[in-house]
Amino acid sequence: MSDRGCPLLTAHARRLIAECLRLGSLDELADLRLIQWAHMLGFRGHFSTKSRRYSTTLGALRAARADHMRDEQITTGRLPLFEEDTVLVIAHWEYAGQGLSAGDALLAATLTGTPLSAQIPMEVNHEPAPAHCH
Q: From CA 115, how far away is CA 108, in angstroms rounded?
């Protein structure tokens, strides 16, 4: 293997590539496609794993993207303007009933091998919750 191809390869990477090229030429190992992938042995990682060497980090990019999205939602009226440390909770809870639905009971009985009659509650409360609970 020539040193002129990539002078930054370590001796270990050169040996690995040379061995892949040798093994890849064997008929019984042709399915592994070692020759086609040998060049990747000298690759030192994805570009994002080396981001500290460049002008920014992926964390800084994520933070900038989050700030941009938040600012856009505020300026378009989709998100109200609050202080930075405010936690906005948007939720609406409603009582849906107790126990398993008939479909869930059938699935549970099938998976556990228990009789279906043991899974279905005798009464299911479908009444809406009182107004003060919303």
A: 10
Which pLDDT score is estimated for 117?
Answer: 72
pLDDT digits (tens, 9 = 90+) for 59-109: 888 899 999 998 898 888 887 777 778 887 878 888 877 888 888 888 988
DSSP H helical segments within the chain, as ranges? 11-24, 34-37, 58-75, 102-112
How many other CB atoms sit within 10 Å of the CB of residue 129? 12
* b/e map 27-59, b = 16+ CB within 10 Å: eeeeeeebbeebeebbeeeeeeeeeeeeeeeee
What whole-number distance in Å separates Cα of residue 97 and Cα of residue 13?
63
